[in-house]
Amino acid sequence: MLHDPNRIFIFDTTLRDGEQVPGSQLTTPEKIIIGEALQSLGVDVIEAGFPISSPGDFQSVVELSKAVREPIICALTRANKGDIDCAVEALKYAKHPRIHTGIGASDMHIKYKFNSTREAIIERAVEAVKYAKKSVEDIEFYAEDAGRADNQFLAQMIEAVIAAGATVVNIPDTNGYCLPEQYGAKILYLKENVKNIDQAIISVHCHNDLGLATANSIAGLQNGARQVECTINGIGERAGNTSLEEVVMILKTHHSLGFHNNINTKHIYELSGMVSRMMRMPVQPNKAIVGRNAFAHSSGIHQDGVLKHRENYEIINPEDVGIDQSEIILTARSGRHALKHHLARLGYADERLDLDHVYERFLTLADAKKEIKDDDLLLLMGNEADTNFINGVTINSLEVICGDEKDPSASIHLNYKGEDHHATANGNGPVSATINAIQRIITKPVDIKEFNIHSIHGGSDDVSKVDMRVIYEDKSYMGYGFSTDIVRASANAYLDALNKFV
Ligand SMILES: CC(=O)SCCNC(=O)CCNC(=O)[C@H](O)C(C)(C)COP(=O)(O)OP(=O)(O)OC[C@H]1O[C@@H](n2cnc3c(N)ncnc32)[C@H](O)[C@@H]1OP(=O)(O)O
Ligand SMILES: CC(C)C(=O)C(=O)O
Ligand SMILES: [Mg+2]
């Protein structure tokens, strides 16, 4: 384990520290599903639980040990025999078991939690490690609240537990207190002042109370730590733990750090969603790497930049974390490039598109609606007589007669090539009469292949949406029309399709 100095071990504690979040408790089957996903992600260690804490947590560690065989399965204990015996029992099926035992290291904890002394605490720490070592080879020791502990005393404690058999020493910033510089210096201090430090891996375990968990973890690695303890989505006690996805993507993005690990980053996004759903912890939209907006661009200058060259505004390729592509969100802050991009995606790629005119109408709508979705764009393009095409065909007026006594007929005035054209026609219904009347003016061999009418919200006074696929000269064109009048919506859809080639 110690032979490659640049290998970083990823210790996931989503199922232990992450699961300490109120309301996020998991059942054993849920823990196994997440455990298997963490195994596919490639984590080195899964902290499965704290077996003494409840029969349910004990059982989860037992079942996870049976089901997940590749990573080390770790169980947390306090520095006492009862907790350790319980963890040893829970880990009995684990292929690679680890006991994670420890005790408080700051004077605050020593005095106000344990009502004890530094010397007595070191004794308890050593005793716990020696006791655990009798049953399990792989022992990790945590010096709780090490972030606020005196470095000299911490070094003394770490040296003693390594001598007692600990092979990983965890230096938690339990309360998220440290600045990156301080935390990095603490790790370096241990590297330089603990005589037997080469016999153990230093682990970093940082909390996010000041939003510095990830920065502190990286500072720890830069100063000699080689294991990072983290959780998916950064969940955990209070403001959470170091987020796995942030650390891993920092290591991937900054090759110059020279570190490598075993994580297949393409599983990150899927796992983030799984953990969020199962643990009932929504991911904040602006969360780095996995937030809904992490790869979404909504202002025109950024959108233009991304469309020209993704890296202008993205330092991570979304595919690297399992997201198909970045998103261009249309809002009133978007520009013409973004609008054109989405129109082309919806089939409006024609160079005859009057982009300035569409953009003006788009902005009015976007100011009112905040976010413009595909349906809004289609509505904008297929609505009423307003044309979005240079020299496009528009309806000046339409009258339809139908009913039991009459053959359906339509009379239409179109603005076509800058002039008013009129035609009347019959059909087997008001829509076919209208299409026939338009045909008389346009005189192009156009076949309607698909024709669908939907109501947008339901209800007889609703806006109808018509989508239509027509064939002209062996090419297919989509048209969309909207109106409270289904005949008008159909005429709008037909003209929307025609305007793409007439
Ligand atoms: C920083 C962390 O994340 S640590 C892990 C936190 N996770 C949890 O606490 C979740 C699981 N915890 C539990 O289920 C329960 O708290 C248990 C089962 C561990 C203990 O329950 P109880 O025996 O009722 O004790 P309670 O939780 O009220 O108090 C904790 C006791 O453990 C002692 N203790 C705390 N940490 C340690 C430690 N690392 N080593 C030894 N003793 C410790 C406390 O001093 C206190 O002992 P006291 O009763 O002598 O004052
Ligand atoms: C139990 C330890 C490792 C912990 O979670 C912390 O100190 O934050
Ligand atoms: Mg913690």
From TrEMBL:
Pyruvate carboxyltransferase domain ranges (all copies): 8-269
Family statement: Belongs to the alpha-IPM synthase/homocitrate synthase family. LeuA type 1 subfamily.
Top-level taxon: Bacteria
Catalyzed reaction equations: 3-methyl-2-oxobutanoate + acetyl-CoA + H2O = (2S)-2-isopropylmalate + CoA + H(+)
Residues binding Mn(2+): D17, H205, H207, N241
A GO term from the CC aspect: cytoplasm
E.C. number: 2.3.3.13
Keywords, in A-Z order: Amino-acid biosynthesis, Branched-chain amino acid biosynthesis, Cytoplasm, Leucine biosynthesis, Manganese, Metal-binding, Transferase
Subunit structure: Homodimer.
GO BP term, example: L-leucine biosynthetic process
Associated pathway: Amino-acid biosynthesis; L-leucine biosynthesis; L-leucine from 3-methyl-2-oxobutanoate: step 1/4
GO molecular function, one term: 2-isopropylmalate synthase activity
Cofactor(s) demanded: Mn(2+)
Name this protein carries in UniProt: 2-isopropylmalate synthase
Stored Pfam families: HCS_D2 (PF22617), HMGL-like (PF00682), LeuA_dimer (PF08502)
Database matches in InterPro entries: 2-IPM_HCS-like, 2-isopropylmalate_synth_dimer, AIPM/Hcit_synth_CS, Aldolase_TIM, LeuA/HCS_post-cat, LeuA_allosteric_dom_sf, LeuA_bact_synth, PYR_CT
Keyword Coiled coil: no
Region Regulatory domain, annotated ranges: 394-502
Described function: Catalyzes the condensation of the acetyl group of acetyl-CoA with 3-methyl-2-oxobutanoate (2-ketoisovalerate) to form 3-carboxy-3-hydroxy-4-methylpentanoate (2-isopropylmalate).
